[in-house]
Specification:
By secondary structure, this protein is α/β, with parallel strands linked by helices. The protein has 16 helices and ten strands. Residues 288-338 form the HTH crp-type domain.
């Protein structure tokens, strides 16, 4: 178990954000034999990337995660701000001290209890060449596989999670902010505990001791990710500690990951709606309302429904005018979610036979 000791200054410095580079490196788990089983909602995406792997430096990419799924700290950075861009993070990686990069790789494999792959062992003898090759390989992987379609969809899920965190903090304070991160996270008496934290696991299988981490004014970053099934802590001797946790709504990544999935989403609206609700407000608006179990933007809804953003915008405007939706602006993006009245209407409609 990891126990974070948070003072008043630490709570004031606690923030939320996601890292595109973190998600890029974690997504490489999908190339492992168990990747599809660990993240079934990503299978369609991973299958679509297979043809794009040709020409990538897959020999190196396949060494960036240990067999147990651990990553070197330098490749999973704390976000600078809420939503850094991948280009800035790759630029920061390009000037990371080469000796630190090598130390991070060795530490990850040692903690995993796995030997260094032969290719990585050779590259560690030339840290500067390793660093340059890493930046190039990750940049090409991002550009070919993630950026065109996966990242816009993933970013919508991550942004919705940040919007949810902001509401929780506004409505329920710090206790509310931490309350629904994950069932393994608890907050009491100035201590944030992450139970069963895999980062402290003993490779032999022995129970891990409680690791107490005084934040000591460094603050704390809460990082949603699409590549975790439980929360875990990431610590740094000199940097900001983080809790990485499963993003809300990550299961919706399965929708639209393939042409077949997009067709199904367009036909059904991606969420079951009753005939009674469709008769009341119209089938199209019922589908939109049904999709908003988690906040989403106009563009994301249009993608999931297979219609134009203009058509979705008209439905959203009508639903908001009727008091069934609420809007939250995050930067340039506007996320919609069901209002309490909208939740009641959807809930009541499930009790009415279609």
């Amino acid at each position: 178990m990891m126990a974070y000791l948070l003072g008043v200054k630490d709570l004031a410095a606690t923030r939320c954000g996601y890292s595109p580079l973190h998600e890029t490196v974690r997504s490489l788990r999908l190339r492992s034999p168990d990747g599809g089983h660990a993240f079934p909602e990503q299978r369609g995406w991973a299958a679509g990337w297979a043809r794009d792997h040709a020409g990538l430096d897959t020999d190196l990419l396949d060494t960036l995660l240990t067999p147990g799924g651990l990553a070197p700290e330098a490749l999973t950075p704390r976000p600078r701000g809420c939503r850094p861009c991948i280009q800035d993070e790759l630029s920061a990686l390009a000037v990371t001290p080469a000796d630190r990069l090598c130390a991070d790789f060795r530490a990850a494999y040692a903690r995993d209890g796995s030997p260094l792959p032969p290719l990585l062992a050779r590259l560690l003898d030339d840290p500067y060449a390793l660093r340059a090759r890493l930046v190039t390989a990750l940049g090409q992987y991002w550009t070919r596989c993630l950026e065109p379609a996966w990242w816009p969809r993933a970013r919508t899920v991550l942004e919705a999670d940040l919007a949810h965190r902001g509401r929780r903090l506004a409505e329920s304070g710090v206790a509310g902010l931490f309350a629904d991160l994950d069932p393994r996270v608890s907050w009491a008496d100035g201590t944030l505990r992450v139970h069963g934290d895999p980062s402290g696991a003993d490779p032999s299988g022995a129970p891990a001791p409680v690791r107490r981490e005084p934040i000591a004014g460094r603050g704390l970053v809460l990082m949603p990710t699409l590549f975790a099934d439980r929360a875990f802590g990431e610590t740094s001797p000199s940097g900001t500690p983080a809790i990485v946790y499963p993003a809300r709504g990550r299961g919706t990544m399965a929708e639209g990951s393939t042409a077949e999935g997009a067709t199904r989403a367009a036909a059904s609206g991606g969420s079951a709606v009753s005939g009674a609700l469709a008769e009341l407000i119209g089938a199209a608006r019922a589908r939109v309302l049904g999709l908003l179990d988690t906040p989403a933007t106009t563009t994301a809804l249009a993608y999931r429904l297979g219609v134009t953003p203009g058509a979705v915008s008209r439905h959203l405007g009508a639903l908001a005018a009727a008091g069934l939706l609420e809007r939250t602006r995050t930067g340039r993006a506007v996320h919609y979610r069901r209002s309490p009245l909208g939740e009641s209407l959807v809930g009541a409609s499930t009790l009415v036979p279609a």
